[in-house]
Amino acid sequence: MKILVxxxxxxxxxxxxxxxxxxxxxxxxxxxLDYLVNSHTVPVIENNPxxxxxxxxxxxxxxxxxxxxxxxxxxxxQQYDVVIDVYSKLSSNLITLFSAxxxxxxxxxxxxxxxxxxxxxxxxxxDENCGLAIVxxxxxxxxxxxxxxxxxxxxxxxxxxxxxxxxxxxxxGINLKKPLIMISVLGSGDNKTYPFAYMAKVIDQIVATxxxxxxxxxxxxxxxxxxxxxxxxxxxxxxxxxxxxxxxxLRDFLSLTAHCHALIGNExxxxxxxxxxxxKTFTIFSTWIDKDxxxxxxxxxxNESVHLKDYKPELYSGKTEKEMKPQAMELxxxxxxxxxxxxxxxxxxxxxL
Length: 353
Prior knowledge:
Elements: E1 2-6, H1 11-17, H2 19-27, E2 32-38, E3 53-57, H3 59-63, H4 65-77, E4 82-85, H5 90-99, E5 103-107, E6 118-120, H6 132-139, H7 159-171, E7 180-184, H8 196-210, E8 213-216, H9 223-232, H10 235-238, H11 250-257, E9 262-266, H12 269-276, E10 280-284, H13 291-294, E11 303-306, H14 308-311, H15 321-324, H16 328-332, H17 341-350
Parallel strand pairs: 1-2, 1-4, 2-3, 4-5, 5-6, 7-8, 7-9, 9-10, 10-11
Helix pairs in contact: 1-12, 4-5, 7-11, 8-9, 8-17
């Protein structure tokens, strides 16, 4: 049997959807299990023992209809028996349509339902602490008679990667016997990034409470923005921030985070990766993102999160995520750090640093 799982685009989505492979491997130990992903997301699924082959979707397929069509025809030649389309967008619709698989599974959408043999309606609520993002992905396995309530994404780092990152930290002045906290200072876009002045106050609180050594999660092209947040911090806080120590690649970031006591900051891929590494997290959600979907594995003192809706629910009454998105930046002004100061303080004290 040959099974293809499709999850394009974002790193966090690719990591989260990788939970399907452990369940598929348990059900079909001898099957060929392939994962179709965007090439830039590969680092979060490297060394996953349940994935046989990665099928890479590149910018060329993304930007050209002709190239996408050729790509879909190549997929057809692989003769997959099952295609699970988690992405469920136009490009993956086309790839699935051309695949000629006997079993095609995706989420229900009226315009694409004819393509799939099984159309799964997303749950809108759950009592499971794993969150809707996990629950809805696991529902895609039900047509294969695989029923599990929860599954946690995992990242597989090698001993060499961990040792290299440990040496990198210690030779650059980090004392691993003292508190070390990674800050997700920037989101994937402006409307997913906590305002710089507010983030600086959060970092000030972290240092005042824990006296931790602070690492920033950013990539070289974001140095200007990261430095701007650094400059807004108090002088005593700046002395605890190691601006020059950051992951220059995604695997580097993962290896550095594995040595941290917690990751705190903007919701996004970094938070999901930290959870997959069993690192404690405190997440600040964007004002327009649906917290119920992405607060996966929420647990007091382990993985906590805050959202403006938690404190000012009247702003969200009867409104959808799509309706809130254009207001994101204006809503951020209302999401002041004092709203969750006590909750963050309790989380920091629970770390016993």
